[in-house]
Amino acid sequence: MKITRWPAPHRAVSSLPAVTKSAALLVFCLVGSTSLLASTISGTVKDPSGAVISGARIEISGGGLSQPFVLFSDALGRFESPDLQPGKYVLRATRDGFEALEQSIDLQSSTELRLTLAIARVETRISVPGKAGAYANTDPVYRQLREIGLGDTFRVEDFTLIS
To answer: Can you give the pTM of this predicted structure?
Structure first.
């Protein structure tokens, strides 16, 4: 009987030193963990009566953004930002016919907001061109009517008018 011995399994030999492997592992963990820390800002935009506002413009700035990010609320008044890094952000919501709303957010995890936009105030100014008198009673037509008076008056009792 012949006994054959199998060779021992080979171990992979790396040409990288142990320090380089540790550094690569650290970089991988840091890059992987930042994507896990990404959060979103989402919510609903409503008016004071509780009705949803579609088409509201939501602008998110600050944090690590190089320029503001703009999105719009959908038909149900909902919005959701893309993944954002933790930090301080400013959210500004606007829509025609409503007052703008600005809110600061310290984003550490995904945040759900309920934004209520106040109805815009309407101001109307009326300007009537013309020459105004120094006093209300100085208009000549007014003075003439005032001076005519009621004329003679009579007191009548127990009078029946037959037509």
So the answer is: 0.54
